[in-house]
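1st attempt posting a full record on here, be nice pls
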Amino acid sequence: MNSSTNQDLDQLNKFLRGEMSATETYEQCMDKIDDSAIERELRSLKTSHATRATMLRAKVNALGGDADDSAGIWGGFAKLVEGGAKLLGKSAAISALEEGEDHGLAMYRDNLEDLTPTTQQFVRTELLPEQKRTHDALSRLQNQV
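the predicted structure (as tokens):
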């Protein structure tokens, strides 16, 4: 593998760890929500992150790499968020999720130019629009809570 492919694989695995962490965090926060409409919306957003994780795994494998199977340090962040949500309730859980969405959007945007053109196109067309959608949906939800 050449260095450009290795760089793409490293970055795609970082994106993957972020998506796995987002999925875990949504799951943990949904346990704290007693409003069925909000819980349905969060489940939909969690599914979007899980779908992106699946797409990233497939892309890493297609490039000849090994997809990460753990959120790593991001999983630790998910556990920390869960602890805060248990103590502070629904509003804190939604706020923590929105912070995660902000981070995810920035992560995709800030690292786009470091990728090869083909991988940039994948991120631009397959991942970034959906990350923007989940980010915006959670921002609207936070304004309602």
